[in-house]
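User: I'm new to structure prediction. If I give you an amino acid sequence, what do you actually give back? Let's try with this one:
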Amino acid sequence: MKTIMIKIPKLILAFAMLIPFACEELDENPDFITQDNFFNTAEQLELGVNAIYDGIGYGRDWSNHFYNRYVFECRVGYQVGWEKGPLDFQNGNVNPGDDYIGTYWRISYENINRANAVIEKADELKENGISNTALLDRVKAEAIFLRAFYYYNLVRYFDDVPVTTKKTVSDQDLPSNENGKRIALDLIEGDLSMVADVLPESYSGEDVGRATKWAALTLLMKAYLLDENWNEARTTAETIINQGDFALFEDFAYNFDVEHENSGERIFEAQVSASANANEYNNHHSHFVPADLPNELGGVGWHWLNGTKAFRMKYDPEDKRIPGTFITEYPSNRVGLTDEEEYPVVRWSEEASYNLSRFGGMVSADADPNNPEELIFSNGWVAKWVEIGTNANLTERNIVYLRYADVLLGYSEAANESGTGDPYMGINEVRRRAGLEPLSGLSQSELRDAIVEERVLEFAFEQETYPELKRKSTYGGDPDYLGDYIQDFIDTYNVDRELSPQDYVLPIPLNETLGNPNVQQHSVY
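Assistant: Good question. You get back a string of structure tokens that encode the predicted 3D arrangement of the chain. For your 525 residues, that looks like this:
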């Protein structure tokens, strides 16, 4: 029996995290594992693609892929926080040395590199006549999808990014970001069109949660929208609507709970489970949880992120999405116990005072715990990622990235912009589920405004608002949805910040521009 000595290049470090290296019999020599001598079967290569999925979940960073994007959302001002990262973004103090930006960039390119390595290895194995070609083709298609996923979520924040389809083997393999947005979109659109015909429509057993044909088509539709390729976006959305057998959950909250994960309108989501891996709990609960929720009920004694009162009041009071989007009541430890020795339940009210301080929207600390009229708060505490009544470090909620409502709103947008199809179909289905009246008789610009606003309300706190408003806006342009949101935040809360061209794109990280002479920083920075 020999102990396997692991000697693995940085580029496949995440692969090693998922490989159960232990003492086992080996017939071959040498007795250590490298990329060349381990990934020699389709089953082994599947472990490699699992590591790329890991990057969109918790991964190995506290400031991980999804949390960094939550911080980016604070740039719009509908969501705020008191910790340094969110404060910097909501106050417009963003620079190339920002830790959240740097970490997001590193995670993205680490996993793009891993995807490139898997794709190259799959081609090599197929050339060598490997068995189980069906699995090999699927694994390669998953790697291509994930590479497109990471590139798409770089382009929508950073615009011109460096693009490479080869694994990095030396510091001479440094791509340029010249015309990077165009190059990335061409790659994304071509790759997703191809793998949509390879990926299965669904999975079973332990494979549930992997990228499907519908995930590829949904991401492709979103790429076409970003590219303003309206006809292709509309026809892609139609394919999903007509062939995908999807329907909206009647209860909006089902999009985020544990019981309905990987089902219904949830098209693609990161798989995160503390019960499966105690070191992989999803820390969004810890950041969105009300600061005064008792620890034994899932509180952590602090909070970092919440919606503003002004944003919470954008929703029609009859909107059925409210309970699934916002926490409307919860037990609080801020005012002491009731006469029955219980935590009093506090409830949201537009009558409660609000300011941007750490405790500005919470129930007053001197409220009478026995007087319901005083037990009110105005913070937009987020329900989508919080589980009240559980251990804060052992939550189970997946991170949802793609869902059917996105397809419906994408269809309406593409139909409206192209002048083909029924532009009301998708948005009115989303509004029907929300319990709102259908729209009709609007001009193209009025419907465009309505679709943008519906998207904001539907996808609030899902990492979509900033990049989507950015997609529809340019500094000084008309319409300027992003600028309007930021300016409204500045005016409403008297924020010491001025709208700037820098608000419309994130800076390329300082480490990248210093380490790669082929990458140029955006001119506005």
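You can read the tokens as a compact description of the fold. Here is one thing that stands out. The longest strand covers residues 266-270.
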